[in-house]
Amino acid sequence: MQVPLWLALIAVGYLGIKLIRPPWWLIAVLLLGGYLLADSVLAPAIDTAVK
User: Fold this and answer.
1) Longest CA–CA separation in the chain, Å
2) Residue pair 22/13 in contact by the 8 Å Cβ criterion
3) Which helix (H) or strand (E) holds 9?
4) What is the DSSP letter of 24?
5) Which of 11, 21, 37, 48 is 20 to 30 A off residue 3, Cα-Cα?
């Protein structure tokens, strides 16, 4: 199953807010970092680790 990156980021962010209640700046940093890592040279390594 393939899920668009933006949809996965929204789902993870929503669940993180509802379940853990971290500060907003931490959520923003994690989501932005994940988005940037997805377009980096580490993307193939992350892809194999996720699958």
Assistant:
1) 32
2) no
3) helix 5-19
4) H
5) 21
**29: alpha, beta or left? (left if phi > 0; alpha if psi -120 to 50):** alpha
Is it the case that residue 1 has pLDDT exceeding 80? no
- Two tokens, residue 48: 């194999």
Residue 49 has which token pair?
């680790």
For tokens 């669940």, the residue is 15
Q: How many residues in total does the chain contain? A: 51
Q: What is the pTM of this model?
A: 0.51
Which residues, in sequence order, are CB contacts of 30 under 8 Å at separation 6+? 16
Measured CA distances, 16 to 30, 41, 44 (Å): 10, 26, 25
H or E stretch covering 50: helix 43-50
